[in-house]
Amino acid sequence: MPKSLATEEFITGVLHDTERRIREQIDRGEITPTAESMQELSNALSHTVEVRKGARGSGKYIGKVKDSRSTREYLGGISLQALNDRVRKNNILRLKNKAGRNGYPVFQFKDGAVDPQVRQIIKTLLDGKLTEWEVAFWLAVPSNFFDGRPAVEYMKDSEENFKFVLACAVQDAADRRANY
């Protein structure tokens, strides 16, 4: 079992490592220290903490998932090959549990298909090299960016909200590609 740390020791350790990485990126010219970039990094760290918190109780955020068979049926009886092709092309979000079983979050489905707007966000983030679980949490965890609501709910309110969520996804994907 890992050694428990005092709260202050834990926070100091995390922040020290984070500070070192930020200083290295500033020195390499990868980050320009502006108020805007400071806020972006602060928001990214806050989001990461929320995702980490959510990973322990993923069902709380992700909600229900369909297995491969029920997903194929829901999508009109498509073949396993067709489903796997959609996964390969980042057109559907598939999660794997610790046992290696596939699950497809229900929040991405609408009217017998993958909701086109949700699919666009999924594809943008997966193409940007976020992991499947990161994408699931990105969409499902409430965020201050989206008035304290999950992106997948916020974007359904209006076309303007969808465009804002898409712009955030594009930016996060670009940030990931630039830094990993």
TrEMBL record:
Highest taxon above the source species: Bacteria
Source organism phylogeny: Bacteria, Bacillati, Actinomycetota, Actinomycetes, Micrococcales
The name of this protein is Uncharacterized protein
| Organism per entry | Rothia aeria
